[in-house]
Amino acid sequence: MSITVKTKIFSVLVVSALLAGCGGAPEPTPEPTQTIFSYEEFSRVDGSTVTLPLSVALANSTVLAADNIKHNTTHEAYLNLIAGKADIIFVTYPSDDELRLAQEANIELEITPVVNDAFVFLVNKNNPVQGLTSDQIRKIYNGQINNWSAVGGARTPIRALQRDADSGSQAGMLRFMQNEKLSAPPLDNVSTGMEGLVTEIASIDGAEDSIGYSYYFYVNSMYVRDNIKMLAVDGVAPSVTTIQSGQYPHITPYYAVFRKSEPENSFARRLTNFVLSAQGQLLAENAGYVRIPQPPRIVTQ
Fold first, then answer.
1. In the chain, N or C terminus with fewer CB closer than 10 Å?
2. Residue 124 in 3-state DSSP?
3. Per residue in 150-191, pLDDT tens?
4. Residues forming a β-bridge with 207
5. For the chain, what is the largest distance between any 2 Cα atoms, rounded to a whole number of angstroms?
6. CATH number attached to the domain at 3-116+254-286
7. What is the per-residue DSSP string for 194-227?
């Protein structure tokens, strides 16, 4: 599945969502620098669903006559990078399977964090539970806790939703579980799309028993639903402020990933450096992401 968005239209939607959520206008983006990429170069960018607005913001600032940007979702983006169909991808950290596929193809990946986000847990707004500890969430997902009454909620069985195995969200959940094993969910508890899990929890009927997970940017700016509530974790609610400060316990970067064999002045390295520049970080922030503190630089010649 690929996601294609007309850049000008999508930028308006992103800004509108930010204005609605924040109550004010985003910080003005600085005037474009001399960094300009060609349409042909930018056609070699791929990535996750949740990083599509990042690519849009970068294209609008640096690509001459760009009319659309396409992302093929996390796993497909990694496959395209490994197969040489993409030069750079903006994604969550690779899963063990994706690292194995790269190794089997004799490809070493260079993985650089470029913006921050947070891994968040979602319930229906009518669920009385406002927050959980990380340990409680792990026990819910490994089957040790199976009723909301055990964590301060109603006497109702917990329906723990999961994502499909190859998704970036599922890879994030596996990292969250650390050494705990995820219970195998019933088939109707597995969503093949980011929007499907959110829609299920937001639905009016039968959703108050559900819990799921996603990324803060996605549910706060891309796929906003009134019936969704993000849980506080370990006593801290996810927000731009708590993500930026590091208070929220489950911050996750999005990465620029490319083949380590890329030449020093390649498009992939130049674009990564641009994202990490002051202008690039402000573009990302205005698109709704959280800038990373003191971003690393990739040296180019």
1. C
2. strand
3. 999 999 999 999 999 889 999 999 999 998 899 988 888 998
4. none
5. 63
6. 3.40.190.10
7. HHHHHHHHH-SSS-TTEEEEEEHHIIIIIS--TT
CATH code for the part of the protein at 117-245? 3.40.190.10
**Interatomic CA distance for residues 57 and 61, integer angstroms:** 6
Q: What is the pLDDT of residues 236-278, one digit of tens each?
A: 999 999 999 999 999 999 999 999 999 999 999 999 999 999 9
Smallest Cα–Cα separation from 233: which of 225, 218, 222, 243?
Answer: 243
Does residue 3 sit in helix, strand or coil?
Answer: strand
Nearest CA-CA partner of 8 in 79, 57, 63: 57
Parts of the chain belonging to CATH 3.40.190.10: 3-116+254-286, 117-245
Please name the residues in contact with 244: beta carbons below 8 A apart, sequence gap of 6 or more: 116, 290, 291
In this predicted model, which residue has the larger pLDDT, 32 or 11?
A: 32
